[in-house]
Design a protein that fits this description.
Length: 155
């Protein structure tokens, strides 16, 4: 089954493509989700597919990984900084075709339970690197270096 979270102008085309592929009964459009409902959606996933080039900071990827969901994504800014191919998901070439994306999704979804557990843990470990406590510390250190100091204490 496929869970599509969010909404936008491509929804109509997606519905048509799923119907043409005779898989409409296995596709679920959840619409825009927030807070606990979004967390529940991530937690229900075996693998998170991301084929966009517009994720500038990788936040949606980190959100999925926080739930322990491996990510299959196309190489793009904001993605390559988060997805480590073969560890917390699969990072495909930016010009990968639909068949390559489908194969990678199947590879992760159908991996042996031990392999999936390792990927799930790696996904959570990656998400931990982007926690507010760590990102604020790195930002302060960056500013300190930029200002010519050695470090700034975190209150």
């Amino acid at each position: 089954h496929v869970l599509v979270v969010g909404d936008g102008p491509s929804r109509v085309e997606m519905i048509g493509n799923f119907a043409a592929g005779a898989v409409s009964d296995r596709v679920h459009f959840a619409g825009v989700l927030r807070n606990a409902k979004l967390a529940d959606a991530y937690a229900a996933m075996d693998v998170f597919a991301f084929s966009s080039f517009s994720e500038t900071q990788g936040l949606v990827l980190v959100e999925a990984m926080m739930a322990g969901v491996p990510v299959v994504a196309l190489d793009a800014p904001g993605v390559r900084e988060v997805v480590v191919d073969g560890q917390n998901g699969r990072l495909l070439a930016g010009d990968a075709d639909v068949e390559a994306l489908a194969a990678a999704l199947g590879e992760v979804a159908d991996a042996a339970p031990e392999t999936r557990q390792v990927m799930r843990k790696a996904a959570r470990d990656t998400a931990d690197l982007y926690g507010i406590d760590k990102t604020v510390g790195r930002t302060r250190e960056f500013y300190a270096q930029t200002l010519g100091r050695k470090s700034m204490a975190v209150p």
